[in-house]
Amino acid sequence: MTEADLSLFEALLSDPEALGAFQWFGWRDPGRFRRRWAENGLLADEQSVLTVACRGEFAGFVSWRRARAMTSAPYWNIGIQLRPEARGRGIGTEAQRLLVEYLFAHTPVMRLEADTEDTNHAEQRALEKCGFTREGVQRAMTFRDGEWRDVVRYSLLRTDVRPEFGR
Ligand SMILES: CC(C)(COP(=O)(O)OP(=O)(O)OC[C@H]1O[C@@H](n2cnc3c(N)ncnc32)[C@H](O)[C@@H]1OP(=O)(O)O)[C@@H](O)C(=O)NCCC(=O)NCCS
Question: Does the C-beta of 84 come closer than 6 Å to ligand 1?
Answer without folding.
Answer: no
